[in-house]
Amino acid sequence: MVNHTDKILLDYIANKLIKQAGLYPENCFLLANSLYFKKQCQYSSGKTAMTHALQNKIYTISKKYGQRLGFDLPYFVKNGFWVSLRQGVGSICSLALSIAFARLATQEVFGQYQFVLSVLSIVSILSIPGLNVAIAQSVARGYDGDYKKAVKISFLWSLLGVPTLLVIGGYYYIFQSHSLGITLMISSMFFPFFYAPNTWDAFLQGKSRFDISTKYSLIQAILNMLATIGIIFFNANNLIPITVVYFISYTFFNGYYYFKSLKYIENGRSDEDTLKYGWFLTKISVAGVIAENVDKIIIGILISPAAVAVYYVISAVPLKIKDGLKPFYNLFFPKLSQDSFSIKEFLGRKKRFIFLAGLLLLGIAGIFYLFIGKINYLLFGNSYVDFYKYSKWYAIMIFFMTPVNFLGKYVFAKKETQTLRLLNVFYPFLKITVTGAFIYLWGIAGAVLASNVNMAVYFLIYLIALISNRGKSIRSL
User: Fold this and answer.
1) Of the candidates 288, 251, 2, 29, which has an alpha carbon nearest to the alpha carbon of residue 138?
2) Three-state DSSP class for 219?
3) Where in the chain are the domains?
């Protein structure tokens, strides 16, 4: 638990990061969280001498090798605790559910399930998801009164998703698949309750209650996985009960945690800019949300739902690796924001580290290429074995994803506005175009190829930022 003194200090740091450095809320919470974790490691009661000795040993080793590499390794070891716990368990639950689908259900049912989730992700734009980030920022600055307002607005706008999903479901029921159409129409009943109450997570993070947020999310992920796998085990080839259990589980937990989170509201203060900021974030994220889900939609429309299942399986492991590492890349953000240097200075000062990191990434990509087929077979069985060869292509993405994400954090931290415009406006439309064209021309192989091409385009955008950089940097806190 965070005591009153800790909470004041955490809120002060988060607010200072937001107001003075212009950092994004999630990164402010991450830095504040790192302080909390450090204090817990140092002062928590009940720690044994062995635990302290282990912590000191880890710190000594990480500091020793960090100095050799010219890198603040203890910072990343220390701050990765909450990130690794939440992301690790979430990834395991997601992978376990995918394995159950691949081994027990038909490709048709598995593909339809993924298709439904992709449709819901795109329609979720109607729930004004940008309010989550806006609320996190507002609450961190002491404005709790915006929380209920944001959830109400999200719920009311989510009602537009009901007729939208009914129309889409009706179309598929009449012209495509009865079960897929019925599932989409059923999802319309859950939609307003599925997305609007999930603002509890952003609210708790804004309150610096990372312990509670992590606990809630882990319980939700684990129980949802167990419930869904249970239905798959007894009724693997019926899409409707599987998705209904999934919807009920997530809707219940989002609603339950929302009402539990209300007890943490400490005041009724409101910031008039919060809701406007939420609308702004939603508008600029529309193209990005569509781009992230368009591949499965296009495959489902142009090829078949079974092809969606194939595509999901062959991309599951590399995408889990990519998504699993994303929160760790956020650890770069506070460092980049506080240190005053240009990217050219960084490249000059960290040549040894960059060289060793490049060799490491090349080795990881090579190992991935050699063993991904066997890993896929071990996890998903022989139903998809003819397509496992395409997974090897993701070695390109595995190699580039770390430098791409590092450069991404750099342009955010250094406020490279030109690059940010390219990322939020130009790139999503380019990604949609490339993905659609490649799938049309080469099917599933084209979708995999498009993922790697899009990663290369991302890298080129960041190179443009480096070329146009004149050595400017923001001041440290």
Assistant:
1) 29
2) helix
3) 4-74, 75-468
